[in-house]
TrEMBL record:
Keywords: ATP-binding, Nucleotide-binding, Transport. This is ABC transporter related. It comes from Korarchaeum cryptofilum (strain OPF8). The lineage of its organism: Archaea, Thermoproteota, Candidatus Korarchaeia, Candidatus Korarchaeales, Candidatus Korarchaeaceae. PANTHER family: ABC TRANSPORTER ATP-BINDING PROTEIN, ABC TRANSPORTER, ATP-BINDING PROTEIN. One of its GO terms (cellular component) is plasma membrane. Signal peptide: none annotated. The keyword ATP-binding applies. GO terms for molecular function: ATP binding; ATP hydrolysis activity. Pfam families: ABC_tran. It comes from the Archaea. Residues 4-234 form the ABC transporter domain.
Length: 235
């Protein structure tokens, strides 16, 4: 059974067909990159997968659970880093994580230990008591990433996790994504950065104008790219 099954997903906003009949499977333990230019439909697809945007048609299953039939159960299986980070600007880095861990029903003692561990790993110890609003873009993204992996969900969904982030923080986030998947967990991320997809992902889906143009292994994408098949999408 695939970790995530997306079937015939569609979503329109007025006249705009943001997502147009998209289907793909994500195997357990893979890092699946949803790759495409601005406005391609990546965010809309991810939001339907993690259950905050209802599709016009189609379905999403995570570990066999239908996201729109059993939303609570499905959401408990997913850690999410949304496009706008989703962190609270007036709470400190630590408070953001503690608050979120409580919402996820984590045991207090375990939660505090996990938060300290993550702040340390991500080099955010000194920013522990800094309100999120005062953090750099890279630091905010790292807090958002820590939030997504706090209770170690089997599926991680990241919307442009390194967009606008400084080089060092981007590298740290990428390394953590790889480590996360290495433990057998599944990651879906969106990016419009070809280099990132090639370096980081095991599988890719190329999306443009709401349609899935290609789904396959990362190595095969490199061949297609050499053949200039998708040049118009990335130029
Ligand atoms: P980006 O990299 O710029 O975030 P994307 O690939 O994530 O792009 P989406 O954000 O999914 O693309 O947008 C796909 C299309 O749907 C775009 O034309 C966008 O303007 C439109 N769209 C997305 N969300 C809404 C909304 N809430 N209301 C109206 N139109 C929307």
């Amino acid at each position: 059974m695939p970790a995530v099954e997306v079937k015939n997903l569609s979503k329109s906003f007025g006249e705009v067909k943001a997502v147009n009949n998209i289907s793909f499977d994500v195997e357990e333990g893979s890092i699946f990159g949803l790759l495409g230019p601005n406005g391609a439909g990546k965010t809309t697809t991810l939001r339907m997968i993690y259950g905050v945007l209802r599709p016009d048609s189609g379905s999403v299953r995570v570990l066999g659970i239908d996201v729109w039939e059993e939303p609570r159960k499905a959401k408990s299986l997913m850690g999410v880093m949304p496009e706008d980070t989703g962190i609270y600007p007036r709470l400190t880095a630590e408070e953001n994580l503690i608050y979120f861990g409580k919402v996820r029903g984590m045991d207090e003692h375990k939660l505090r230990r996990r938060v300290s561990e993550l702040l340390k790993i991500l080099g955010l110890e000194e920013k522990r008591f800094t309100i999120a609003d005062k953090l750099s873009k890279g630091q905010k993204q790292k807090v958002a990433f820590a939030r997504a992996i706090l209770d170690e969900p089997p599926i991680l969904i990241l919307d442009e996790p390194t967009l606008g982030v400084d080089v060092m923080s981007a590298r740290e986030i990428r390394n953590m994504i790889v480590d996360y998947a290495r433990a057998g967990r599944t990651v879906i991320l969106s990016t419009h950065n070809m280099w990132e997809a090639e370096k980081l992902c095991t599988h890719v889906g190329i999306i443009s104008e709401g349609k899935m143009r290609y789904v396959g292994k990362r190595e095969d994408l490199e061949k297609l790219y050499e053949e200039k098949e998708f040049e118009e999408i990335f130029l």
